[in-house]
Fold this sequence. Notes:
By secondary structure, the chain is mainly beta. 5% of the residues lie in helices and 39% in strands.
Amino acid sequence: MRVDIKKLDESTVIPNHSTAFSAGYDLRSTVDINIKPHKTVKIGTGIALAIPPHHFGALFSRSGLSTNKGLRLANCVGIIDSDYRGEIIVPIYNDSNETQLIKNGERIAQIIIIPYINAEFHLTNQLVATSRNVGGFGSTGE
Length: 142
């Protein structure tokens, strides 16, 4: 699948895989920035994408940042719609009690391009019953 990418700065690193079987493409910071404890900062990646129709970019945290520095995506998982053409910005939240430094060029998140199906919602007064039916949280066992 083709995803067109625009570098917004000549020094920007194009997203890449860390290993041959990595699902996510690494996104990198374009700045040195300190993140204070329990605060969120928005960090630019220096790229814009043209994601194909019926696909979206899913942003995920990097496990190393979360386990080593206590940093994660502020919204846990980000969604980049296929019609968005602006810079990919990564909101990072600091769960730790220490100020954490992100360096220019450091890997801050990963993106996976995922297909989706457009649903058509139809209003009804009754849904088809199932064995679970209206059973909610914890209803299927331990």
